[in-house]
Protein backbone atom coordinates (compact mmCIF):
# COMPACT_ATOMS: atom_id res chain seq x y z
CA UNK A 1 0.00 0.00 0.00
CA UNK A 2 1.19 3.45 -0.91
CA UNK A 3 -0.15 7.01 -0.88
CA UNK A 4 0.08 9.50 -3.70
CA UNK A 5 0.78 12.63 -1.64
CA UNK A 6 0.43 15.04 -4.54
CA UNK A 7 -1.88 14.82 -7.53
CA UNK A 8 -4.38 16.93 -9.44
CA UNK A 9 -7.37 14.76 -10.28
CA UNK A 10 -9.83 17.11 -11.95
CA UNK A 11 -12.59 16.66 -14.50
CA UNK A 12 -10.84 18.81 -17.10
CA UNK A 13 -8.03 16.23 -17.29
CA UNK A 14 -9.80 12.93 -16.66
CA UNK A 15 -12.96 11.70 -18.42
CA UNK A 16 -13.47 8.89 -15.94
CA UNK A 17 -12.35 9.72 -12.41
CA UNK A 18 -14.10 6.60 -11.05
CA UNK A 19 -11.70 4.51 -13.12
CA UNK A 20 -8.61 6.53 -12.14
CA UNK A 21 -9.42 5.95 -8.48
CA UNK A 22 -10.30 2.30 -8.96
CA UNK A 23 -7.11 1.61 -10.96
CA UNK A 24 -5.07 3.30 -8.24
CA UNK A 25 -6.69 1.23 -5.49
CA UNK A 26 -6.30 -1.99 -7.51
CA UNK A 27 -2.58 -1.17 -7.75
CA UNK A 28 -2.28 -0.66 -3.98
CA UNK A 29 -2.36 3.13 -4.06
CA UNK A 30 -5.08 3.38 -1.45
CA UNK A 31 -4.87 7.08 -0.61
CA UNK A 32 -4.39 10.16 -2.72
CA UNK A 33 -4.00 13.79 -1.76
CA UNK A 34 -5.68 15.88 -4.42
CA UNK A 35 -4.32 19.42 -4.70
CA UNK A 36 -6.10 22.57 -5.76
CA UNK A 37 -4.17 25.47 -7.24
CA UNK A 38 -6.74 28.28 -7.34
CA UNK A 39 -10.29 28.96 -6.17
CA UNK A 40 -11.98 26.93 -8.89
CA UNK A 41 -9.82 23.82 -8.57
CA UNK A 42 -9.92 24.02 -4.77
CA UNK A 43 -13.74 23.91 -4.95
CA UNK A 44 -13.55 20.86 -7.19
CA UNK A 45 -11.04 19.20 -4.84
CA UNK A 46 -13.50 19.65 -1.97
CA UNK A 47 -16.36 18.18 -4.00
CA UNK A 48 -14.30 15.17 -5.07
CA UNK A 49 -13.02 14.50 -1.56
CA UNK A 50 -16.63 14.32 -0.36
CA UNK A 51 -17.42 11.85 -3.13
CA UNK A 52 -14.41 9.50 -2.84
CA UNK A 53 -13.18 8.13 0.51
CA UNK A 54 -9.66 7.53 -0.80
CA UNK A 55 -9.28 11.05 -2.16
CA UNK A 56 -8.12 13.56 0.46
CA UNK A 57 -8.17 17.26 -0.27
CA UNK A 58 -5.56 20.01 -0.16
CA UNK A 59 -6.71 23.50 -1.05
CA UNK A 60 -4.71 26.61 -1.77
CA UNK A 61 -3.59 29.21 -4.26
CA UNK A 62 -0.56 28.36 -6.40
CA UNK A 63 2.01 31.08 -7.20
CA UNK A 64 0.95 30.89 -10.86
CA UNK A 65 -2.56 31.97 -9.80
CA UNK A 66 -1.80 35.21 -7.98
CA UNK A 67 -4.90 36.71 -9.68
CA UNK A 68 -6.87 34.61 -7.18
CA UNK A 69 -5.09 36.23 -4.23
CA UNK A 70 -8.09 37.96 -2.63
CA UNK A 71 -9.47 38.24 0.89
CA UNK A 72 -12.52 36.26 -0.19
CA UNK A 73 -10.41 33.38 -1.45
CA UNK A 74 -8.30 33.29 1.71
CA UNK A 75 -11.54 33.26 3.70
CA UNK A 76 -12.72 30.38 1.53
CA UNK A 77 -9.61 28.36 2.44
CA UNK A 78 -10.11 29.15 6.12
CA UNK A 79 -13.79 28.23 5.98
CA UNK A 80 -13.02 24.79 4.53
CA UNK A 81 -9.75 24.08 6.30
CA UNK A 82 -11.29 21.38 8.52
CA UNK A 83 -12.31 19.42 5.44
CA UNK A 84 -8.78 19.10 4.08
CA UNK A 85 -5.53 17.44 5.13
CA UNK A 86 -3.21 20.23 3.94
CA UNK A 87 -2.92 23.66 2.40
CA UNK A 88 -1.57 23.16 -1.10
CA UNK A 89 -0.42 23.55 -3.69
CA UNK A 90 1.25 26.79 -2.57
CA UNK A 91 4.73 28.23 -2.92
CA UNK A 92 6.97 30.30 -5.16
CA UNK A 93 7.66 30.05 -8.88
CA UNK A 94 10.22 32.37 -10.48
CA UNK A 95 10.60 30.31 -13.62
CA UNK A 96 8.74 32.43 -16.13
CA UNK A 97 9.66 36.00 -16.96
CA UNK A 98 7.38 38.67 -15.53
CA UNK A 99 6.61 36.91 -12.25
CA UNK A 100 5.60 39.15 -9.36
CA UNK A 101 7.93 38.20 -6.55
CA UNK A 102 6.40 40.41 -3.89
CA UNK A 103 2.84 39.25 -4.54
CA UNK A 104 3.94 35.61 -4.54
CA UNK A 105 5.73 36.09 -1.21
CA UNK A 106 2.69 37.79 0.34
CA UNK A 107 0.36 35.10 -0.95
CA UNK A 108 2.58 32.35 0.46
CA UNK A 109 2.86 34.08 3.83
CA UNK A 110 -0.90 34.56 4.13
CA UNK A 111 -1.43 30.85 3.52
CA UNK A 112 1.35 29.90 5.93
CA UNK A 113 -0.41 32.00 8.57
CA UNK A 114 -3.52 29.88 8.08
CA UNK A 115 -1.44 26.71 8.29
CA UNK A 116 0.06 27.94 11.55
CA UNK A 117 -3.29 29.02 13.00
CA UNK A 118 -4.99 25.69 12.26
CA UNK A 119 -1.93 23.38 12.60
CA UNK A 120 -2.27 22.17 9.01
CA UNK A 121 0.66 20.89 6.99
CA UNK A 122 1.51 22.60 3.70
CA UNK A 123 2.38 21.21 0.27
CA UNK A 124 5.06 23.43 -1.21
CA UNK A 125 5.82 24.16 -4.84
CA UNK A 126 9.23 25.80 -5.29
CA UNK A 127 10.71 26.47 -8.71
CA UNK A 128 13.83 28.58 -9.21
CA UNK A 129 13.10 30.10 -5.80
CA UNK A 130 14.93 27.93 -3.26
CA UNK A 131 16.39 30.70 -1.11
CA UNK A 132 13.14 32.69 -0.82
CA UNK A 133 11.23 29.47 -0.12
CA UNK A 134 13.55 28.50 2.72
CA UNK A 135 13.57 32.00 4.21
CA UNK A 136 9.77 32.30 4.05
CA UNK A 137 9.14 28.88 5.56
CA UNK A 138 11.62 29.67 8.34
CA UNK A 139 9.34 32.51 9.48
CA UNK A 140 6.78 29.84 10.41
CA UNK A 141 8.78 27.26 12.38
CA UNK A 142 5.66 25.53 13.71
CA UNK A 143 4.46 24.72 10.19
CA UNK A 144 5.52 21.42 8.64
CA UNK A 145 4.91 20.03 5.20
CA UNK A 146 6.05 18.41 2.02
CA UNK A 147 8.42 19.91 -0.55
CA UNK A 148 6.59 18.68 -3.60
CA UNK A 149 8.58 17.30 -6.56
CA UNK A 150 11.88 17.82 -4.81
CA UNK A 151 14.69 18.25 -7.36
CA UNK A 152 17.25 20.28 -5.39
CA UNK A 153 20.73 19.53 -4.10
CA UNK A 154 21.67 17.40 -1.13
CA UNK A 155 22.53 20.57 0.75
CA UNK A 156 19.03 21.98 0.11
CA UNK A 157 17.47 18.67 1.08
CA UNK A 158 19.30 18.73 4.41
CA UNK A 159 18.07 22.27 5.14
CA UNK A 160 14.45 21.30 4.52
CA UNK A 161 14.80 18.17 6.64
CA UNK A 162 16.28 20.15 9.50
CA UNK A 163 13.24 22.45 9.29
CA UNK A 164 11.00 19.40 9.71
CA UNK A 165 9.83 19.10 6.11
CA UNK A 166 9.60 15.90 4.11
CA UNK A 167 10.45 15.58 0.43
CA UNK A 168 8.09 14.46 -2.33
CA UNK A 169 9.64 12.14 -4.91
CA UNK A 170 7.84 11.52 -8.18
CA UNK A 171 8.36 10.73 -11.83
CA UNK A 172 11.42 12.95 -12.19
CA UNK A 173 13.28 10.62 -9.80
CA UNK A 174 13.09 7.86 -12.41
CA UNK A 175 14.47 9.90 -15.32
CA UNK A 176 17.86 8.68 -16.50
CA UNK A 177 19.80 11.86 -15.79
CA UNK A 178 18.35 12.29 -12.32
CA UNK A 179 20.90 12.95 -9.60
CA UNK A 180 18.10 12.35 -7.13
CA UNK A 181 19.19 8.73 -6.78
CA UNK A 182 22.32 9.89 -4.97
CA UNK A 183 20.33 12.20 -2.72
CA UNK A 184 17.90 9.41 -1.83
CA UNK A 185 20.79 7.33 -0.53
CA UNK A 186 21.94 10.15 1.75
CA UNK A 187 18.69 11.17 3.43
CA UNK A 188 16.78 9.35 6.17
CA UNK A 189 13.89 7.15 5.04
CA UNK A 190 11.63 9.16 7.34
CA UNK A 191 11.95 12.08 4.88
CA UNK A 192 10.53 10.29 1.84
CA UNK A 193 7.05 10.76 0.43
CA UNK A 194 5.77 9.46 -2.90
CA UNK A 195 3.79 11.53 -5.34
CA UNK A 196 2.84 11.62 -9.00
CA UNK A 197 1.80 15.24 -9.67
CA UNK A 198 -0.78 13.67 -12.01
CA UNK A 199 -1.61 14.50 -14.76
CA UNK A 200 1.98 15.77 -15.16
CA UNK A 201 5.45 14.20 -14.94
CA UNK A 202 4.84 10.52 -15.72
CA UNK A 203 7.64 8.26 -14.47
CA UNK A 204 9.75 6.00 -16.68
CA UNK A 205 8.76 3.90 -18.60
CA UNK A 206 5.57 5.92 -19.15
CA UNK A 207 7.21 9.29 -19.71
CA UNK A 208 5.15 11.51 -22.02
CA UNK A 209 1.80 9.89 -21.22
CA UNK A 210 -0.88 11.29 -18.92
CA UNK A 211 0.11 10.47 -15.37
CA UNK A 212 -2.17 8.76 -12.84
CA UNK A 213 -1.88 7.96 -9.11
CA UNK A 214 -1.50 4.23 -9.88
CA UNK A 215 1.97 5.10 -11.25
CA UNK A 216 3.25 5.63 -7.71
CA UNK A 217 4.04 1.93 -7.91
CA UNK A 218 6.64 2.56 -10.65
CA UNK A 219 8.27 5.23 -8.48
CA UNK A 220 8.20 3.04 -5.39
CA UNK A 221 9.74 0.08 -7.26
CA UNK A 222 12.47 2.30 -8.68
CA UNK A 223 13.32 3.73 -5.25
CA UNK A 224 13.22 0.33 -3.55
CA UNK A 225 15.87 -0.83 -6.06
CA UNK A 226 17.98 2.30 -5.58
CA UNK A 227 17.91 1.89 -1.81
CA UNK A 228 18.11 -1.89 -1.80
CA UNK A 229 15.10 -2.37 0.46
CA UNK A 230 11.95 -4.36 -0.14
CA UNK A 231 8.76 -2.75 -1.39
CA UNK A 232 7.07 -3.93 1.77
CA UNK A 233 9.57 -2.18 4.03
CA UNK A 234 9.38 0.93 1.88
CA UNK A 235 5.60 0.84 2.11
CA UNK A 236 5.66 0.54 5.90
CA UNK A 237 8.07 3.42 6.29
CA UNK A 238 6.50 5.83 3.81
CA UNK A 239 2.96 5.11 4.99
CA UNK A 240 4.11 6.00 8.49
CA UNK A 241 5.60 9.21 7.06
CA UNK A 242 2.26 10.07 5.46
CA UNK A 243 0.49 9.42 8.75
CA UNK A 244 2.98 11.50 10.74
CA UNK A 245 2.69 14.50 8.43
CA UNK A 246 -0.92 14.50 7.23
CA UNK A 247 -2.60 12.60 10.06
CA UNK A 248 -4.23 10.14 7.63
NI1 LIG B 1 1.32 19.92 -8.59
List the helices and strands and how they pair.
Layout: E1 2-7, H1 17-26, E2 29-35, H2 39-51, E3 55-59, H3 71-79, E4 86-93, H4 101-118, E5 122-127, H5 130-138, E6 145-147, H6 154-162, E7 166-169, H7 180-186, E8 192-194, H8 216-227, H9 231-246
Parallel strand pairs: 1-2, 2-3, 3-4, 4-5, 5-6, 6-7, 7-8
3D structure, described in words:
With about 250 residues, the protein is α/β, with parallel strands linked by helices. It is about 40% helix and about 15% strand. It is built from 9 helices and 8 strands. Strands 1-2-3-4-5-6-7-8 form an 8-stranded parallel β-sheet, sandwiched between helices. The mean pLDDT is about 95. The structure holds nickel (II) ion. Nickel (II) ion binds near residues 6, 8 and 89.
